[in-house]
Amino acid sequence: MLKKLATPRNLAILLLVVALFVFNALFPVLKVPSPVVSLAAEPIFHIGGFTVTNAVFTAWLVMILLVVIAIAATRRIPRNLAEVSNQDLAPTGLQNFMEMVIEYVYNLAKGIGGNWTARFFPIVMTIFLFVLFSNWLGLLPGFGSIGILERPHDPAMVGFEAQGAILTSAKATGPAEGGHGAGYIVVPFFRAPSTDLNFTLALGLASIALVQYFGVKALGPGYFKKFFDLSGFKQGAFMGGIGIFVGILELISEFARILSFGFRLFGNIFAGEVLLSVMAFLIPYIASLPFYGLEVFVGFIQAAVFMMLALVFFATATVGHGTEQH
Amino acid sequence: MEKLGINLGFFISQLVNFTLLTALLTFLLYKPILRMLNERKDRVARSLADVDAAREAAARAQQDYDKKIVEAQRAAQEIIAKASQASEEVAVEIRAEAQREAESIRRKAREEAAQERAHLLAEVQSQIASLSMMATERVLGQAVDANTQRRLVEQFLAEIGDGKP
């Protein structure tokens, strides 16, 4: 086992790591600055009148990546399926893998959504892929570390000294000027969309809006009865009052779902990235490795959770509300 | 909200991103792949059904074949039986014919012999008659009246004929 690992390549990598250790000890230039946590995504450039933040930019990258994967995966699928021979239907490589993923999620959606699968599936599948790639992309090296050096926007904030293009760990000593803090901070080009509340809340809102849409589609205007339940008045003012109160609770819980959707994803992924950067700050090498593994896992789980919850909410909206079935 | 980075513009752009991505992936990924999966499922189901049908057909063919063999065997048996029966009949007929022919030949021969004998007898009788007439003439030295003589001879012959057979 050990002999197998001792290939020239691995030895070279080990040597490089050790060299980095030594280099870092001798020259503190490469010391990691203490992480600057920014809850908000930072603007990086403008297109016409629109400001583009790094999160929006990365979302576009994710979309491009997914579209490229989609094209690559479906490239070998023949157009005229009904006529081609059986051999042409044999999947290979990426197509095989995507088929597996899609079939798995499709069957899952079928198990929960039943007759509505055809409508639910594209949405939940896209949620899953979009969130998963957003989460995982944020783990790539360069995300959050490569960017533009800018002066802190908040005058009270103190940045770091920069040597050329590299930010050092030395706190800036210069005075704050022109409404900016002293020194520099990195505004990264790339930021996982999942660490931007706009992204997570947009997905949450879209999901809950679709829940209402599917509810109305399935039950007609009767769907809204669960929010404005006046049927209790037939049994007296007390029951009517309870009905209205329950309706208000339902309404609040619907809005709470948007928030819980948005903040769950944001919190998990953002916290993960903060954890990683803090670990990198404390112990620059190796120590953050297990946390990477953890974050890969969390990224997958959060994507799956978002998808499953959306699916379940869709499905429950299409079957009548409890009180109607009594 | 400002601190959290929530901003209507970015929010809407992410909504648009999601909608766009859903549409794109639906047409580029889900539809082709699901179409593919369905086609493959259909084909597998179809080929399995074909296999079942083929197996059934083979079993049916085997049954037919067995039935035909049995039938052919029975027919052959029948033909053989019929043939042997026919040959027996023919043999019987031939034997009967032969017997009949032999019988008729024998009868004819017997008849011919009888005729021959009658003929001979008649001849002998007439010779005897003329001989005895001649003898009588010689003995008597005179001719007996022809009529009387014939009557006598015939009487004599009749007596002989009565005693003879």
Keyword list:
heterodimer; A: 326 residues; 2 domains; two-stranded antiparallel sheet; 9 helices; 58% helix; B: 165 residues; mainly alpha; 2 helices; rod-shaped
What does this structure look like?
The complex is a heterodimer of chains A (326) and B (165). Chain A has helices at 2-5, 8-26, 54-74, 93-113, 117-137, 197-219, 237-282, 289-318, 322-325; strands at residues 43-47, 50-53, 147-150, 160-163, 166-171, 185-188. Chain A is mainly α and 326 residues long. Chain A folds into two domains: 28-76 and 92-146 and 189-320, no CATH class; 151-181, no CATH class. Chain A has a two-stranded antiparallel sheet. In chain A, strands 3-6 form a two-stranded antiparallel ribbon. In chain A, strands 4-5 form a two-stranded antiparallel sheet. In chain A, strand 4 (160-163) and strand 5 (166-171) form a beta hairpin. Chain A starts with a helix and ends with a helix. Chain B has 165 residues and is mostly helical. Chain B has one domain. The mean pLDDT of chain B is 87.
Short description:
The complex is a heterodimer of chains A (326) and B (165). By secondary structure, chain A is mainly alpha-helical. In chain A, 58% of the residues lie in helices and 8% in strands.
Kindly estimate the percentage of residues of chain A that lie in beta strands according to DSSP. 5-15%
SS elements, strand count of chain B: 0
Q: Summarize the amount of helix of chain A as a percent range.
A: 55-70%
- In percent, how helical is the residue content of chain B? over 70%
Number of helices of chain B: 2
What is the terminal-to-terminal distance of chain B?
Answer: 165 Å
Uncertain residue ranges of chain B: none
Total count of domains of chain A: 2
Shape of chain B: rod-shaped
Please describe the topology of this protein:
The complex is a heterodimer of chains A (326) and B (165).
Chain A: H1 2-5, H2 8-26, E1 43-47, E2 50-53, H3 54-74, H4 93-113, H5 117-137, E3 147-150, E4 160-163, E5 166-171, E6 185-188, H6 197-219, H7 237-282, H8 289-318, H9 322-325
Antiparallel strand pairs in A: 1-2, 3-6, 4-5
Helix pairs in contact in A: 3-4, 3-5, 4-5, 5-8, 6-7, 6-8, 7-8
Chain B: H1 8-140, H2 146-163
